[in-house]
Description:
Largest sheet: none
Distance between the termini: 59 Å
Oligomer: single chain
Helix content: over 70%
CATH topology of the largest domain: Tetracycline Repressor, domain 2
Order of helices and strands: HHHHHHHHHH
CATH class of the largest domain: Mainly Alpha
CATH architecture of the largest domain: Orthogonal Bundle
Number of strands: 0
Radius of gyration: 19 Å
Structural class: mainly alpha
Amino acid sequence: MTERAATAPRPRADAAERILRAAIRRIVTSGAAALTMHEVSEEAGVSKGLIHYHFHDKETLLARMVEWMTRSLVGRERAALAESIPRHAIDDLWKWLESELERGQIRVLLELAEWRGPLVQSAIRDSAIARRDASTASIEHLFSLLGLRPRIPAPLLADVVVAFIDGLAIAIGINREKNARAAFDVFWLSLLSLTE
């Protein structure tokens, strides 16, 4: 491999990611229904032709956004407790959730769950499964760190946790002043009371 080839930028991958990030920012700001390829091209600093090259149409772009956001969200959740110690586990989980609420991507996923296109609906179904699996792993890891065993199977608790997170994302979207940490603490105290 030549030195030039080793240091050459990867414009296609970088452009696709820039487009995805720009589309997410636009949806966080304006909503999915208002999203236009023109706005995405301006936000990403690319031509509309390049967006169509990578994503074909708006539906494909939205479906890829769901996949990309889900992979990122799940990866950050798994990392949240990876190095955690029992004394800090709940705080580490909160720090992860706080940053997710600030990003606004959970609200974007919730908004796109209402999209009627088949590609987006398929991506949303896959996203829900991945989020539930990640939540199950987080619950199992957290309870293990704390030396507790839940009386309810972790996958069932995961459904409740994901629903709580989604509800909190909506509440924060409506009222930025909401004390999300208090709600989080009460919620987790309730879950921890369901242990042996």
